[in-house]
Amino acid sequence: MSGLEKSIHIKTFGCQMNVFDSDRMESILVRQGYRKEADLAKADVLLINTCSIRDKSEHKVLSLLGQLKPLKEKYPHKVIGITGCVGQRMGRALLQRVAHLDLVMGPDGVERVGELVEEVVSRGRRVLETSFDNQKERSYSQPAVIDKVRPSEFLTVMKGCDHFCTYCIVPFVRGREKSRPIAELLDDVRRFVDRGTKEITFLGQNINTYGKRTGESLAELVLCTNEIQGVERIRYVTSHPRDLGMDLIRQFGQVEKLCPALHLPFQSGSNAVLKRMARLYTREEYLEKIAALRAARSDIALSTDVIVGFPGETDQDFEQSMDVIREVGFSGAFLFKYSPRPGTRAFEFGEEVPDSVKTERLAHLQEVCFGKIHEENKGLVGSTVSCLIEALDKKGRYYTGRTPHGKLVHVLNAGEACIGKILDVEVTEGNASNLKGYYVGAPRQDRTRDSEKAVSA
Ligand code: 5AD
Ligand code: SF4
User: Fold this and answer.
1) Which residues line ligand 2 (CB under 6 A)?
2) How many CB atoms lie within 10 A of CB 428?
3) Which ligand 1 atom is the nearest neighbour of the CA of 265?
4) Is 130 within 8 Å of 91 (Cβ atoms)?
5) What pLDDT score was predicted for residue 450?
6) In which residue ranges of the chain is pLDDT below 70?
7) Residue 217's domain spans which residues?
8) Is 453 inside any structural domain?
9) Per-residue model confidence as pLDDT tens digits over 419-433
10) Fewest C-beta in 10 Å: which of 8, 16, 21, 303?
């Protein structure tokens, strides 16, 4: 096989679904004989798995692609490919525009990445693959080859979205909703658990309607997963306020392993804006769902997404988003400036809000929202939280993990042997982005001061 001896590097941008897809592509290519190469510049085959949700996400990809030109000129046999949402959105135009690009492929090509790369490598052809497999979701025949234990795993259970929120590119680049069968997902979960995973997060762009074409449901998937021995925590993202039914809401008070945390984007607090976004709910309906969630599980941690500066958003509209932020008290939030995406309906709306106004609104929203989160986290100082230790943080200083409520914790006295363990951590500090603390029952030795003597569980 011509793949033998060759190396691959996959660089991933964007959401967890892309991380999941990159793992699958890597596994397929490794099984085909490729070796993983940690250094992007040294790899024979270099794939960039991309995101197109906002203009900025696309810019990052295009600028990386520009930087790779001299590399391709020096080593013409290297294969450079764009996969994922930018590949889908720009397709042939991208291949035409960037001469040093060999492969352009959309998210539905993941299972075929082996053949497509092979076509470039052995036939020297430039390849474009952006067709949608709209029949059914293919089964993922190749579970990811992973070299280290991952205490917390993401599992894509469905792809695509049937909503057409007017600002959103997802339905265009990921297609209509397609769900994988529960039986196959439970096999994946068991495989994860066998190699040490304790927490599973199910992924879908519009996860509440999982299984709607196959007669299965998210509630059923959650119940079945709850029965699997070794699974300690279950989560799912992303919910849509219209599709989050009472069956799912009640489960937060009933299903033992379902974490008391939910990401529920409201996007705007103004009914006029929600209507133009085609979100299919009102601010009042959103707040009713929040009340029902809190009735089902009083300590549930809620997080959200908000867009500021949607076309035509007035100061009063924006104030209503601020109100929702103040009223609900989210534990986490992703706040975005509206980014026009060609091909979406909102792109044609006009009434663009000036960038300076968007920037101002975003800063104001961040101040209030993150201020509240900071207060909430400070309030946890002195309490003990349960924390699943996942990995060393990016700077290599502390082992980090999450609480059932989804709070990120830096555990100051944890060592490598703590990975995969669920520890009781006494919180000593809380800021807007994380908690810090020491795990109970071990000396309070700060890893940064004495990394050699890191405490082991
Ligand atoms: N501009 C800004 N934010 C967007 N999102 C989706 N599309 C856009 C856009 N065109 C945000 C929404 C969504 C999150 C994943 O990204 O808030 O929930
Ligand atoms: Fe995009 Fe989410 Fe709306 Fe679907 S539900 S169109 S993924 S914002």
Assistant:
1) 161, 163-165, 168, 170-171, 205-206, 240
2) 13
3) 18
4) yes
5) 45
6) 1-4, 133-148, 447-457
7) 134-259
8) no
9) 999 999 999 999 999
10) 16
